[in-house]
Amino acid sequence: MKRTSKAAWPLLAINLLMIFYLGCNKTPATPPAPTPPKASFTFATPDAGKVPAVVSFTSTSTNATAYSWDFGDGGTATAANTNHTYTAAKTYTVKLTVTGDGGKDSTTQAITVTLNKPKASFSFLINDNGNLPTHVTFSNTSIGAAQYRWSFDNGDTTSLESPIDSFFTPKTFNVKLVAINAAGSDSVTQAVTIMINKPLATFSYNILNPYNLPLNIECVNATTFHATSYLWNFGDGDTSTKAAPTHTYTKGGIYTITLTATNSGGSSTTTLDVRVSPYPITYKAFDGTTYNLNAWEGRTVMLLMRKTGLDPTTMFKWAKIMDSAYGYYYQATGQFPIRYAPLTYINDHVTIADVASTCGAGCGYLGFTGIEMLNSYTDRMYNYALTNQYDQELFYECGRNFWFYGQQLAYLKNDPVTTGYAIFMRFMAMDATGVSPAPFNNIPWTTFRSTLEGLADSYAGNTSYTWTNTLGAGAGISNALGLGAGDLFASFCIKLRNDYGGDAFVQNVWKQAGLRPTAVTTQDAVDNFILASCAAANKNLTTLFVTTWRWPMSDNAKAAASKYPN
User: Which residues contact 7 (CB under 8 A, 6 or more apart)?
Assistant: First the structure.
């Protein structure tokens, strides 16, 4: 390789320095100017012909970074794409101004918002066609309206959008709807035919003065479909044209009330029987004998009497007292006897019948409705009632009707409890109804009652008496009236009632007895009564029953009684 001479090195260095200098001081190139923005937009009116109208605006501008819309109605926006709502039909000048790096540009377009005339239309629903007044619901289906005018061809008008109107005449009505907006109006008319069905007559009645003769009733008219007239026939020769009359029956009997309801569509008739005491009734007795008797109705009980011409005031008072007695027994037991229909439960009433022959002076079904009384006893009770005194017999037989506790309390043999319950509850029912008791078998009532009530104390004071030789043997104790085992059991019940809660004890003890298990043995029945008494008194009565009264009580029963306070 050829070497450079030493003399050439200075010249080479100078050349390199010149080249470096010239390269570092070269002038830079000028950048291009930004492109100016160009404003442009398109628009669409989805609901043309309506006001308010929503117009969609879409910017098609180029080189823009900011947008300013003026919609010609005072409204503005800054988004590239936007919607605007116009509230009036007219032409608006819309201006879009855009800004970019290259400057600013704007453009305008004329936008015309139009409003079409409305299209009137409606539908309707006849809510209760066939009845007057008829109510019709109108549903407005008009398009593009701002206001409405309805005329119903019956004198009624309204500006409501979807009204309800009432029609009182059966005919065809031309109902007109006018739909209005700023561009004009449109109307439509439809025929609405109102019909009327013939009325369906129906009614009930209320007795205004039960336990009375004359008897006053009020008729409750429940006729459906509009009737223009009514005709009532009360079955006793009297009539009425009132919509809901009252009527008075002066004599007993069964009367058929007839109601005829009429309108332009026709008429219909219905009937109901009203029983006015006393009225004739056929009764089939326990022994199968058929009797023609006269019924005196209370609310729950009816007294069936063979004789006519009885004093109405006495008979209605007697029926009312027996209603109260049944109500008391229901309150004490929480149950009503099984209805033995159609023999002893007639016309929704429990029967107490005056008969020539039955199972005793009086006879009542155990746990079922129905009481019969011999003619002679019925006459005696009626004669007492005339003097405002009431024989105990019917109150006793009510107790047999309300006896529901044989499975829990009745002894397997020599049972004194079933009868004793009825004897005891007779006193309670008579006290509750507030009657003046008649003599008992010609013995003054106070003498009879005090003798019976004293049996428990006499028993307790004589240690020769035990449960085994009295109640357990179906026997009573020595007394002046010859009262028996049932009377002794009733005396124990009265003692419990007087010493352990009064009426509250009576209201609870039989309900508690009904909760006890079925007695398999007589001892079970005795235990059941003792524990029912403990529950009703909320007290451990073991000492009373075992020590004072000398009743047998199982160890299990003693353990169960121990949970009650001593």
Answer: none
CA distance 173 to 169: 10
Distances in Å between the Cα of 38 and the Cα atoms of 61, 70, 72 are 5, 17, 21
Is residue 95 within a helix (H) or strand (E), and if so which, with residue range? strand 91-100
The CATH number of domain 203-276 is 2.60.40.10: yes
Q: What does residue 401 show for φ and ψ, rounded to 5 degrees?
A: -60, -35
Contact between 394 and 308 under an 8 Å Cβ cutoff? The reply is no
Q: Which CATH class is domain 122-193?
A: mainly beta
pTM for this prediction = 0.71
- Answer yes or no: are the C-beta atoms of 535 and 504 closer than 8 Å: no
> What is the tens place of the pLDDT at every residue in 304-339?
999 999 999 999 999 999 999 999 999 999 999 999
Q: Where are the domains of the chain?
A: 41-112, 122-193, 203-276, 405-566
Segments of 463-546 assigned E as strands: none
DSSP 439: P
- The answer to whether the beta carbons of residues 561 and 544 sit under 8 Å apart is no
Tell me which CATH code domain 41-112 carries. 2.60.40.10
Q: At what angle do helices 522-537 and 503-514 cross, to 10 degrees?
A: 140
Kind of pairing between the strands at 266-276 and 246-249: unpaired
- Amino acid in the structure at residue 482: G
Nearest to 550 by CA among 478, 468, 443, 449: 468
Task: Tell me how far apart the alpha carbons of residues 520 and 275 are, in angstroms, rounded to a whole number.
Answer: 48
Give the pair of three-digit tokens for residue 460.
Answer: 């307790």
Burial of 478 (0-12, 13-18, 19+ CB in 10 A): exposed
pLDDT digits (tens, 9 = 90+) for 438-491: 999 999 999 999 999 999 999 999 999 999 999 999 999 999 999 999 999 999
Indicate if 122-193 has the same CATH topology as 41-112: yes
From CA 157, how far away is CA 149, in angstroms rounded?
A: 7
Cβ–Cβ under 8 Å, residues 184 and 178: no
Helix (H, G, I), strand (E, B) or coil at 314: helix
DSSP 12-62: HHHHHHHHHHHHHTPPPPPPPPPPPPB--EEEE-TTTB-SSEEEEEEE--B
| SS3 annotation, 153-219 | CCCCEECCCCCEEEECCCCEEEEEEEEEECCEEEEEEEEEECCECCCECCEEEEECCCCCCCEEEEE
Which of 3, 86, 93 lies closest to 52, judged by CA? Answer: 86
pLDDT at 116: 94
Q: Round to whole Å and give the CA distance between 490 and 452.
A: 8
Who contacts 98 (Cβ-Cβ below 8 Å, separation ≥6)? 37, 38, 39, 59, 61, 64, 66, 67, 68, 104, 105, 106
**Cis peptide bond prior to 210, omega within 30° of 0:** no
